[in-house]
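Re: weekly structure request thread

Next one in the queue (378 aa):
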Amino acid sequence: MQDSKPKECIYRQASPYFDNVLHAISNAQSQIDMETYIFEVDAIGEKISHALIQAAQRGVVVRLLVDGMGVNIDFVHIAKQLRTAGAQVRIHRPLPWHFQQWSFSLSSIKGIQKFWYLLSYINQRNHRKILIIDQESIWLGSINISQKHLLRAHGGESWRDTAIELHQVSTQAAQSVFDLSWNKWKRKAKKRLAQTILPSPFLFNFTRLLRQTQRRQLLSRISLAENHIWITNAYFVPDSKLLQALVSASKKGIDVRIVLPYQSDVFFMPWAASFFYEQLLNAGARIYEYQTGILHAKTLIIDDWASIGSSNFNRRSLLHDLEVDYTLQLKESINQLEHDFLDDIKHSEELCQYELSIKKPWQRYLGGLILILFSYWL
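Done, posted below.
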């Protein structure tokens, strides 16, 4: 039964997150629904798949949905093991040339038509990372099923992420959206569902209406900000209206601070992001590049409103990818997110106009060229 006050537990490191996810899977009683962009065949992937297999063998309904861009050929081995144990596995749009994965595809199209179907939708990915246990608890954020998120001391690459564990919240919206993706509902059903989940603290974008609504709300929040706008994001490629909204807010005296990666898992993304630095700095915004590991978190704080999720501050999240974010409901959670933001700044290098002028200008020019040529894909 839902309590009036949700329980929100924020994670900023992957090790405790994975430990508690594994514990939750091991104690699941009836149903496990996991949706993730990346599921790698590594130490973490093997632990998660083993836990899911054990859950399925004791009678828990297990459904795993992954994205075709986020799994390699070796994932078929794990998928077959899960199926043998009684779990269900599906892949959201396998890469067309990964024929071994076609049998796990959501699409029922056959033969050469399937190849062209997968190729035509290759730019539209499922970027969500969400886990629903027994329709009672939810886990979401920026952490994939991958060892890379762990600290180097634990065999990872020290990615800096943010995720959240939720209890005593209504899971109906999240469960319905998972079912929609799992069963590949038709357009009319999507529209009907979109109309019913808008009041939810969970932010989904599986229809054009939801994408437009979220974008309008974000622009409105930025323009109405009274104190601060603090952004932490892995891939910062704002469109013109979002960029102008941040510039205008900064010129009005709003504390606009943005923490971005110095080093990214997509090597050219810091170059693309740096294309926007000069305009923001001229307006008075403050920009920081995170120095300790790879920054992969996606959080946003605007005054007393904040969110955690999978959405990046880029065109992909706005236009192409399926995402899920959560609006924090508790003041203490927002306070913790603010504390984490300020701590990240301590591990970052702030950029100024002078530093920007001497800091490898060719990277900024190349980033601009990348944006001109590939903006649709970024």
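The longest helix spans residues 208-224. The radius of gyration is 20 Å.
Next request, please.
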